[in-house]
């Protein structure tokens, strides 16, 4: 097996061990998101009655993306915080792969795991609401991954900030509220500036794919290009910012301090 293959296997094995060891935390994440959705669904039915049915598909798709987004975001930011608290962060720097390649592999795992978590919750939401959506895997999975990429970049920034400023969990938590707003708004209707922000374009395209059945290759090339460029831009800037913040933390001698 190649060196990269060994790294991937080691990362996956470690993450699976952590999932099994802290399984209550994993299940709590899913249950919390589902209860939150159920409160909106049943509360909305009680308050708005049949009116909520018109926007229910959009709410389900939005929750699916929000679940995958928060899972990926906290996965990236939380990884570095936990490694620093456990005192194993320095070992990652000393590995033959370097911290950059290790974090890149962990990010790929986090994105894949986040999409799986989102799809699991999506199944629960569809059963609860009795709705049906078009789930073309060749469309939904690539769009979900591309929509999440900017969030991974933001996660890298907060991961780096946590090395400098340590206790920033409250700020990290606040960012997820911005994700809700970005998922809810559409970049159409004279708000094209939202195309440059994370999640809005991906959320809009996922809604169209899952409610209208639009396939990936049926979207305008410009829309797909914007989604790819925005995703890679945020990811690249976030990754570069992480490296600079790591350099800054090492220079100040606060890398392993907690």
List the helices and strands in order: HHHHHHHHH
Rg over alpha carbons: 19 Å
Structural class: mainly alpha
- Count of β-strands: 0
Helix proportion range: over 70%
Largest sheet: none
Characteristics:
single chain; 258 residues; globular; mainly alpha; 9 helices
Description:
It is a single chain. The longest helix is centred in the middle third of the chain and has 32 residues, at 98-129. The two termini are 37 Å apart. This protein has helices at residues 3-21, 23-48, 56-86, 89-94, 98-129, 137-165, 169-184, 200-212, 221-252. With 258 residues, the protein is mainly α. Helix content is 79%, strand content 0%.
Quick structural gist:
InterPro entries: Nod_factor_ABC_transporter. This protein has 258 residues and is an all-alpha fold. The protein has 9 helices and no strands.
Question: How does the SSE layout of this entry go?
Answer:
Elements: H1 3-21, H2 23-48, H3 56-86, H4 89-94, H5 98-129, H6 137-165, H7 169-184, H8 200-212, H9 221-252
Helix pairs in contact: 1-2, 1-5, 2-3, 2-5, 3-5, 3-6, 3-7, 3-8, 5-6, 6-8, 6-9
């Amino acid at each position: 097996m190649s060196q990269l293959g060994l790294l991937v296997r080691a990362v996956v094995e470690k993450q699976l061990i952590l999932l099994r060891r802290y399984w209550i935390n994993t299940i709590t994440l899913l249950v919390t998101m589902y209860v939150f959705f159920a409160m909106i669904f049943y509360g909305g039915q009680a308050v708005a009655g049949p009116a909520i049915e018109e926007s229910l598909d959009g709410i389900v798709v939005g929750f699916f993306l929000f679940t995958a987004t928060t899972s990926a975001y906290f996965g990236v930011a939380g990884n570095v915080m936990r490694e620093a608290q456990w005192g194993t962060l320095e070992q990652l720097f000393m590995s033959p792969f370097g911290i950059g390649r290790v974090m890149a592999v962990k990010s790929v795992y986090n994105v894949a795991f986040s999409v799986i978590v989102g799809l699991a919750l999506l199944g629960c939401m569809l059963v609860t609401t009795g709705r049906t959506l078009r789930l073309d895997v060749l469309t939904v999975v690539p769009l979900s991954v591309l929509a999440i990429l900017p969030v991974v970049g933001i996660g890298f920034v907060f991961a780096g900030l946590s090395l400098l400023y340590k206790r920033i969990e409250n700020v990290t938590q606040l960012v997820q509220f911005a994700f809700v707003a970005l998922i809810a708004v559409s970049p159409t209707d004279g708000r094209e500036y939202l195309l440059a922000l994370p999640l809005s374009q991906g959320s809009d395209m996922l809604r169209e794919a899952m409610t209208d059945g639009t396939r990936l290759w049926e979207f305008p090339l410009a829309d797909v290009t914007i989604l790819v460029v925005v995703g890679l831009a945020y990811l690249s800037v976030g990754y570069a910012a992480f490296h600079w913040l790591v350099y800054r933390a090492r220079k100040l001698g606060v890398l392993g301090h907690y």
